[in-house]
Design brief:
33% strand, biotin, AcCoA_biotinCC, fatty acid metabolism, lipid biosynthesis, single chain, Biotin_lipoyl, disordered N terminus, 5-stranded antiparallel sheet, OB fold (Dihydrolipoamide Acetyltransferase, E2P)
């Protein structure tokens, strides 16, 4: 395949890229300190990810396992955080009602949104009980790892 060929004309190549990205996510979820560079190759398909490096020599981005979705607490609010970089969606498809709105109760495992990353739709789920106090991220907004998506108030 030349650089000028359209990859959408090659479904097998797209499947390989998706598989490599899925495996990369799995590898990164098990490390405490992220690498500065990650290179993966499956046959002729290669994926390279780089993180900025601070003056201390450590990667700037926190490892995927280092922050859990509702770990931060301020003023009795807990925040559901993005667990990956991508585009955040409130609903399963355009025109559909949102998964949750302000005032809704959530429980662990309740889907509250979707993040699209590298053509994969990754569910965003609550990891604890609470009431949605605020929706902090606009539908269709780009999010970084650790971005606040929802503020949850303890219910009760």
């Amino acid at each position: 395949m030349t650089d000028h060929e359209n990859t959408t004309d090659h479904p097998e190549l797209l499947r390989l890229v998706d598989a490599v990205c899925t495996h990369a996510s799995g590898l990164l979820s098990g490390v405490r300190q992220p690498p500065a560079v990650l290179r993966l190759r499956a046959g002729d398909v290669a994926v390279e990810l780089e993180w900025p490096v601070a003056a201390s020599g450590e990667a700037v981005v926190a490892a995927p396992s280092a922050v859990t979705p509702a770990e931060e607490t301020v003023d009795d609010l807990e925040y559901l955080l993005a667990q990956t970089v991508g585009v955040f969606y409130h609903a399963p498809e355009p025109g559909a009602p949102p998964f949750v709105s302000e005032g809704d109760l959530v429980a662990p495992g309740k889907q509250v949104g979707i993040i699209e990353a590298m053509k994969m739709m990754i569910p965003v789920e609550a990891d604890r009980h609470g009431r949605v106090a605020a929706v902090l991220t606009e539908n269709g907004a780009s999010v970084e790892y650790g971005a606040r998506l929802f503020a949850l108030a303890q219910d009760g």
